[in-house]
Amino acid sequence: MHYVTQYFGTDWAAMVATLFMLRALGSGHRTGFVYGAVSNVFWIAFSVLAGSVGSVIANVLFLAFNIRGYLTWKPKDEGGAPTGEAPTKG
Prior knowledge:
The chain has 90 residues and is an all-alpha fold.
């Protein structure tokens, strides 16, 4: 049973936060980026414990993208276009 807690639950917490992120972003909620950032922090911790430098670097970059996504988020109007832009027809 040691293999389940080998990385102190960081992998499990990262997986759960990633699932919340996917659900929130798929539903059009800005909070998905917050869940994504939390999952990246857990994935970074897991990667450090696992000794995976590439995974650490990748998740630091993903964390930056999640922060950028949160800061640049534009709510959508009724037509599905970001506010301030005309909906496209097609």
